[in-house]
Amino acid sequence: MSLTDPQVRHIAKLARIELADGQLERTRDALGSMLGLIEQLQAIDTTGVEPMAHATDLVLRLRDDAISETDHRSAYQAVAPAVENGLYLVPKVIE
Amino acid sequence: MSRANWEVVIGLETHSQLNTTSKIFSGSPTAFGAAPNVQASAVDLALPGVLPVMNRAAVERAIRFGLAVGGEVAQRSVFARKNYFYPDLPKGYQISQYELPVVQGGALTIRVGDGDKAYEKVVRLTRAHLEEDAGKSLHEDFHGMSGIDLNRAGTPLLEIVSEPDMTSSAEAVAYARALHALVRWVDICDGNMQEGSFRCDANVSVRRPGEPLGTRREIKNLNSFRFMQQAIDFEIQWQIEQIEDGHKIQQATVLFDPDTGETRAMRSKEDAHDYRYFPDPDLPPLVIAADWIARVRSEMPELPVALSARLQADYGLSPYDAAGLTASREMAQYYLDALAVVGAAQAKPLANWVMGELAARLNREERDIAQSPVTPSQLAGLVARIADGTISNNIAKKVFEALWSGEGQTADAVIEAQGLKQVTDVSAIEPIIDEVLAANPKSVEEYRAGKDKAFNALVGQVMKASKGKASPAQVNELLKKKLQA
Fold it and tell me: Which residue, of B145, B292, B296, B313, has the fewest CB within 10 Å?
């Protein structure tokens, strides 16, 4: 299966990955070969097989509803690029 | 342009914050109103190497909801990553459920409208799934930057998705109200809409009868029932006008502006596959054993629909009264507590007092019924004294006021202390009537000339002269006798 250039650009945009023009072809081929693997898998008859949601046979561990975390804001914010009034500052997001 | 030629289709998605002590995947507190980021731990901040650990109480609340709506609680459900980039979601994905949600199906019975036009309707639920809330972005100007508070990040949510079964803003609001009452009833959510504990998104589309579904627009973050009604009505009108003017509706996410009463497009709606959902490798499937469901079932309170039916069947209350009394669990409990004291024969008058005088007074002072100064047994005592003729309804309002302001411990004590007992002794009332008749010869004349109004005026005078303590029925009777004599 091969992807079109606009499809590759769209996927890159969703993943917030910047693609230089020279990288486009290589990325398209790499993604294409991965999709080839998926196609091979899809060729197998999986009738009656429960879809796998996790690589292990474990079930989800649950914890009791109790507070175990205390306030470490100053430690976390000491390594943040920008903070003010207890808030993390980020480049302006406009909707 | 007429709305009559159009069908409206509405579905609701509701984010209900689960009232756990700690977050869904971390041990941080969930309390509202803390200073920014003091309740954001390494897991909530998505620092490298952290792993989510599921909160059992969040799962249990989902089970409770599933049982309350008669849905299927999935024995096995799966958490998935919903990928998108926004700074209040530091992982770059929200942990949610996609293909296998924890609750599937179910339904909610709603009551729409008042009086003769009221009707019941069953709204089907598609699903309910567990997920984490995002943080908050503050867009005030921080030197051209946005401020991020991650206290809310990781708060457990149950997203409840309805089928597109509603056909008007009134039905949508009735559904939202019923759902709001139910999540509080089964105690999984505090329902505080100002604090964002219960937020609705409405998917709205219109079509001509018989045509396929129209393109929908999603109104986001409706956090009051009034705004929901306004937003949906505006949106319906807008879509109809667009189509009648020859435009096509573009799928979009819109926001409601309460100041203008209008909805406006926020961003073009990303298709579901753009979120690139996939099972979260950090979380194996959630398995809920049958005995867990059975235990939760055994601990469930009587549900509002069942209680409402019981109030109608056992106490002869109207559907309207039964719906009003089961609007909240606290209201229902208050009523049942009072009913146990005053007895089933007074079920209807008691309902009138709880939903009338008491509710109005609580409303005026913005108090919850659980904090009512007049206790259920005090109100029961009051209703009992009306029933046995000790006081009239009018005097009862006085007694209610006294109980409200703490002037007496019981209705009997207030009646005694203030001398409010109804006077039914004929020998005490007759002299009053004689006096009134003597003082109002004109009214007497008018009555004899056939004017009923004059009679009412005379009754009023007697009641006034007795300081409200005479029984109106008895005054009527005695007065008639005297006038006909």
Answer: B313
For residue B25, the chain A residues in CB contact (below 8 A) are none
Contact state of A93 with B40 under an 8 Å Cβ cutoff: no
The answer to whether B284 touches B278, Cβ cutoff 8 Å, is: no
Q: Do A95 and B284 touch (CB under 8 A)?
A: no
Domain that includes residue B338, residue range: 302-418
The count of domains in chain B is: 3
User: pLDDT band at B397, cuts 50/70/90?
Assistant: very high
Choose one of B369, B390, B418: the last residue of a domain.
B418
Kindly determine whether residue A89 and residue B145, on different chains, have CB atoms separated by under 8 Å. Answer: yes
Per-residue pLDDT of B419-464, as tens digits, reads: 888 777 778 888 888 888 888 888 888 888 888 788 888 888 888 8
Contact B145 A92 (CB under 8 A): yes
* Same structural domain, B376 and B449: no
Residues A77 and B45: beta-carbon distance below 8 Å: no
User: What pLDDT does residue B32 have?
Assistant: 93
One domain, residues B227 and B352: no
Residue in B313, B341, B339, B481 with CA at minimum distance from that of residue B410 = B341
From the centroid of its chain, how far is CA B28? 30
pLDDT tens-place string over residues B270-289: 555 589 999 999 999 999 99
Regarding whether B106 and B124 lie in a shared domain, the answer is: yes
Higher pLDDT, B144 or B101: B101
Chain pair A-B, CB pairs under 8 angstroms: 128
Distance from CA of A79 to the nearest CA of B (A): 11
Which of B453, B454, B458, B449 has its CA nearest to residue B476? Answer: B458
Determine, for residues B87 and A58 on separate chains, whether the beta-carbon distance falls below 8 Å: no
ipTM exceeding cut-off 0.95 for this assembly: no
Looking at the fold, whether B237 and B131 belong to one and the same domain comes out as: yes
For residue range B9-33, what is the model confidence (pLDDT) as tens digits?
A: 999 999 999 999 999 999 999 999 9
| Residues in B touching A17 (Cβ below 8 Å) | none
Q: Write out chain B residues lying below 8 Å of A67, CB-based.
A: 21-22, 27-29
Instruction: Spell out the residues 6+ positions from residue B140 whose beta carbon is closer than 8 angstroms to its own.
Output: B147
